[in-house]
Write a structure and sequence with these properties.
The complex is a heterodimer of chains A (about 425) and B (about 400). Chain A has about 425 residues and is an alpha/beta fold. In chain A, about 40% of the residues lie in helices and about 15% in strands. Classes of the chains: A alpha/beta (about 425), B alpha+beta (about 400). At the A-B interface, helix 15 and helix 17 of A face helix 6 and helix 8 of B.
Amino acid sequence: MSQQTMFSSGSFQSDSSSSVRAKVFGIGGAGVSLVDGLCLDGFDAVRTIAIDVDADVLSDSIASEKLPIGRRLTRGMGTGGEVSLGRKAVDEDRDLIRKNLDGVDLVFLLAGLGGGTGGGAAPAIAKLARESGALVFAFTPLPFSWEKQRHQMADDALAELRKFANAVIPLPNDSLIQIGGADATALECFAQAGMNVSRGISAICSLVFRKGMIDVDFAHLRKAFTLRSGRTLFGYGEGQGVDAIRHALRDLLLCPMLHLPDVSRAADVLLITVNGGPDMNMTALQQVAGSIREEFRAGEHVVFGAHVDENMGDRVEICVLGATDLEAGIPTADVAPAADPVLTTSPKAKKTKPVSRAHASKLKRETAAAKKKAKKQKADPKTPDDQEFFDFMQTENQRGIFGDQGKRNLYEGEDLDVPTYLRKGIKIDV
Amino acid sequence: MSKILGAVEIGTHKAKAMVGVLSPAGDLNVVSAASVRNKGVRKGEIVDYRKTASAVHAALEEAEKAAGAKIDEVYLAQTGSHLRGAQLRGSSSTAASDNRVEFSDIERASEEAKRKEPEEGRCFVHHVRSPIVLDDRIVEDPVGMCGSSIEIGYWAIEGDNNAIQETVDIIDGYGRLPISDLFVSSIASGAIVAGADLQQSGVLVVDIGAGVTDYVLYRHGHVAATGVVCVGGDHVSGDLSMGLRILEPYAEIIKIKHGKAMVDESDAKEDVWLIGNKTIGDRTVSRKSICQVINARVVELFEIIAKEIGSLLDPEMVSSGVLLTGGGSLLPGIDRVAENVLGLRTEKASFPSGIDGDLAHPGNATVLGLLHYGLKDSAVPAESNGSEGLFKKLVHLVGMN
């Protein structure tokens, strides 16, 4: 779908007057290759920038901007997996990075967390981005289970990144085999992973940059994701033909990305975007939106956007992005959460710190209270069995069966709570 | 009047309490049994103290009510990832000039073996004695025999103080009910499903529970190794839930109705309805997918056990093979997987005669074994003869610090 088509269709237009500035940062080897593979047709306003310590990686990249960091530290060589080098490189070029963040409202970070640059620099850049007042979404490939040493590194980096980014969407390599077909090559699997990142970014961008039949804007997005989140969920589904939208819903619910151990199964905030052809049925759309809200037991903060694109023909795509555990269990990072749903490009966001904090904690209380209320309202047991099932939906299912112990069940570097078939790369057909 | 003795297991799905007596022949007679669903334990460890305590207390109350008597003392099972076993060895030379072994020689060797202190915050749950080696001979009781050096070994199991204390507190919270002893779950299960003859010829007992798998290896009639692998039936259900993209409760039902540990050729042709009521949202999946998910998990479980036990799992020394028990052993084909992975003849364990009906559920192995072991233990009059009393202490010194 291109921007031109959007114009030619006439019934809607790209909101080119949008003052929102978005930028995609590819950090480290995996991050840069994801940026290179992005398909963000129609979002000309979205800039991409490749950042790495390794000069070779950057010279091969096709990103619109390139920013080598830590040159004095490694003289253009890689970090060799040293997280501390990645961190120091950001320290060294802090001002350069700040300059690149200046005026940017929406930051996407793409970084493989199993590497030195990705693992070290991504959290540091996320911190700088938050300090400059941007809303930060991170898409982070995680190493395969068998890459044992990297796994621990990635875990640590993920925890660090979650302190700063508004939402972190982990993309475990273990899931690639489930995403690709039974006989997909490794290359095809990675390409598929890249597609998923593109879809996620496109979904968010289409909310911000496109006028849709159900329209939301950056302020909605900012308000929904104003608090830093713990677990997230991210999924995609598509359908075609008669009843395309219901097929897409079904496909979405089977999306392997939604069925991973660390993925939240309920959402305190949920972003739903639907893209379809001109024949998209409004009633079906509403029903699907309702089903999705119910499926993820979404709270009050649902951002729903629907866009019509003639190029889609009889195809429909649905993308969901949700987050839970808002500001819970995450040590307060030393940045000002940009809490006000006001489009601000002011680098002075820091000054609003105390107010923002107070606002954040108020929001948190409200969310908690709302949750309690919801629980009360729903707790109307018809039979004891129903009650038991419902309890399960409320707690265990929300966090996964082993999700609440907070420690990994490690055996020789592998987390035994992660399904064996995922770790061993056994493709399961559903 | 003799004491009313009970056994308590705080399992991942259920808290179980039993009251029993020993027949004059030494057989176990279960007087009453109670089992209460517990949602406060994950993978064998307490995550919600109050939920767990109320489940355990409800089970005790029910067992007492059914028995028509108050329980005087209980035996308590221990499991969880915090338990770790290690071989401790000690030796001594015979002191007497005629090289005859005296009890004090054994005591010195034993003291040396047990000199090792647990780490800070941990304590020993058991010291289970291995055979005594007198010079190069394996002997049961060397007192009075001739030889120059005595070597004694213990399989010592240590655990986290807090984890153990919590379980003790729960029992204490039931009207200050005294605990006679603690046993690790694996040894309890092993005691009921593997008789003395099997233990002598060498046998591995694997108890696959909902949250964890406990195993015990017997060689020469003694415990040679025990262990806990934090993988159980819940993992199989969790894997199915993710693999088939269905809610956990449905996954659990699928596991019970259609689950198999082996993938057979015919499975690819069989389609299974996931929710089963064929309503909107229900769909079919190939049985092969179900079995693939389960097979991967179960194979890995036995691979971990094999790795943990290592060279002790020598087929010649474990000639009675493997016995599977626990709720997880109900999974069809799991014995075939164990046999393939461990390279040992594997059977699903059965209980001694007299334990039948609902009681004979493999999920009861630990609590039945605990009761049986405990009752036998208490039946030996400790002061009947000096050496035996002390010896009994050596055989299993169970101590809380």
